[in-house]
Design goal:
The protein is an all-alpha fold and about 450 residues long. The chain has helices at about 1-20, 20-40, 45-50, 55-80, 90-115, 125-140, 150-175, 180-200, 235-255, 255-265, 265-270, 275-305, 315-325, 330-355, 360-370, 375-380, 385-390, 390-395, 405-415, 420-440. It has a domain at about 90-340: Orthogonal Bundle (ABC transporter involved in vitamin B12 uptake, BtuC), CATH 1.10.3470. It is globular, with a radius of gyration of 27 Å.
């Protein structure tokens, strides 16, 4: 019985050590530790007490604890719940602000994840978001003849369509001319930024009696309704949830999503199975651009209400990070988006309350991505590699080969598996292969 319990506990430890979730958690822990060190370096009291640390070590450790605890406490109060606020409404304001900031970020990350699952690295989130916001804003402040609900729906649809067209340009270049999507989407970002800057100098996009490059406010009929009075949280959060459901259905339940995943996993096998890789790549960028364009529409119609040259902020690039952090899955992206939004909102409060530079938050976010991109490093630093080791590996003498496991045999056996669509062509080519073998033997 004890041996059985030992085996089951070791199996659980191996699962934890090999889990991708453990890598993500480990990456955050390492990044938080490095962030804590940077907080200590930036704190004046810590630097001062470090000068006489051997004479009075309690001063140094006390100042260090106060600096780290105060910084993370301020981040919690600024992002989740401010228990020192005067009223209940102010106490819950940080949470609703985090949800507001997370809404367009998560929608854009869904679009990025569609491309990642299809093996395409879409860097054009900023451009697709800008074009989507620009077109949604134009409909919002010019098509005022539309009824209230229709006006909002049309503005959202036009923004998503504009993002789809902008993403489709990169997809067309990839499918027709085999242009690298990383380069093309980066260039399209710059084109979108310059195009929006130009549009804001034209009469059609510039507010009346304004010397600044700012568009008119979106009509009230085209604005996303506020859910709770006194907060900025709007109905775009429901669009975000629906976008997650759509992404899940598309990639796991639809034939189009199956083509996306097949092309992403093995383009050659997809081509042999009869899937048009070029057309699929084009559709991937169209769908991804539509979701990112929808994120821009939600951001404009729900929060900003008017176009400016900096309306995109860092949403386009942060969406890439969120999609990678969430492992391109709907639930993972939702949690990662909430976490990144909380870091951003809480970081601003931490800067004003504790004097810790908000750049520290950006450093922590970048470190998280860096560590997630190197899972073996995270497993080594956190000890997960020790948990993931098989007991047979420990018992096998050095220089001798361990016997192949059933799992490795099964994975090896499935390497040459073809899809049903390709089975017919494979069987048809079998007689020719047999005759070729016979001629070789002769």
């Amino acid at each position: 019985m004890s041996e059985k319990n030992t085996a089951s506990s070791r199996t659980l430890a191996q699962r934890i050590g090999r889990s991708e979730v453990s890598v993500v958690i480990g990456a955050f822990i390492i990044a938080a530790i490095i962030g804590s060190v940077l907080i200590l370096i930036a704190n004046e009291d810590v630097r001062e007490s470090f000068g006489y640390v051997f004479a009075r070590p309690s001063d140094f450790f006390g100042a260090s604890w106060a600096a780290i605890a105060g910084a993370y406490e301020a981040m919690f109060r600024g992002a989740i719940f401010d228990y020192n606020a005067r009223t209940t409404a102010l106490m819950w304001r940080p949470l609703f602000e985090t949800l507001t900031v997370a809404t367009p970020l998560i929608i854009a990350a869904y679009g990025m994840a569609v491309g990642f699952r299809a093996g395409m690295f879409n860097i054009g989130g900023t451009g697709q978001l800008l074009i989507g916001a620009a077109m949604a804003g134009y409909v919002g402040f010019t098509w005022t003849f539309l009824p209230p609900v229709v006006h909002l729906i049309v503005a959202l649809a036009v923004g998503a369509l504009a993002g789809a067209v902008w993403g489709g340009i990169a997809g067309f270049l990839k499918a027709r001319f085999e242009a690298n999507e990383v380069i093309s989407t980066i260039m399209l970002n710059w084109i979108a930024v310059s195009l929006l800057g130009f549009l804001l100098t034209t009469k059609a996009f510039t507010a009346a009696n304004s010397s600044q490059p700012i568009s008119p406010n979106v009509a009230v009929n085209a604005q996303l309704p506020i859910l709770i009075s006194g907060y900025r949280l709007h109905a775009g959060i429901f669009i975000m949830l629906l976008a997650g459901v759509f992404m899940w259905w598309l990639l796991t339940r639809s034939s189009l999503g199956f083509k996306f995943r097949t092309v992403g996993e093995n383009p050659r096998a997809a081509q042999v199975a009869g899937i048009k890789v070029g057309t699929t790549s084009f559709l991937v960028m169209v769908v991804a651009g539509a979701l990112v364009g929808l994120a821009g529409s939600v951001h404009l119609l729900g929060t900003e209400h008017r176009l400016t040259s900096g309306i995109a902020g860092n949403v386009g690039f942060d969406a890439i990070t969120v999609a990678l952090l969430g492992r391109s899955g709907p639930i993972g992206i939702l949690l990662a988006g909430l976490l990144f939004a909380a870091l951003g909102v809480g970081g601003r409060f931490m800067e004003s309350n504790q004097g810790v530079p908000i750049d520290l938050v950006s450093i922590v976010q970048a470190l998280v991505v860096l560590f997630i991109a190197a899972p073996p490093l995270v497993r080594t630093l956190t000890g997960l590699s020790f948990l993931a080791r098989d007991k047979k590996d420990d018992d096998t003498p050095a220089g001798s080969a361990a016997p192949a496991t059933e799992e490795s045999d099964a994975s090896t056996a499935t390497v040459g598996t073809v899809t049903p669509a390709a089975a017919g062509s494979h069987r048809a080519s079998a007689p020719a292969a047999d005759s070729a073998d016979a001629s070789k033997e002769a």
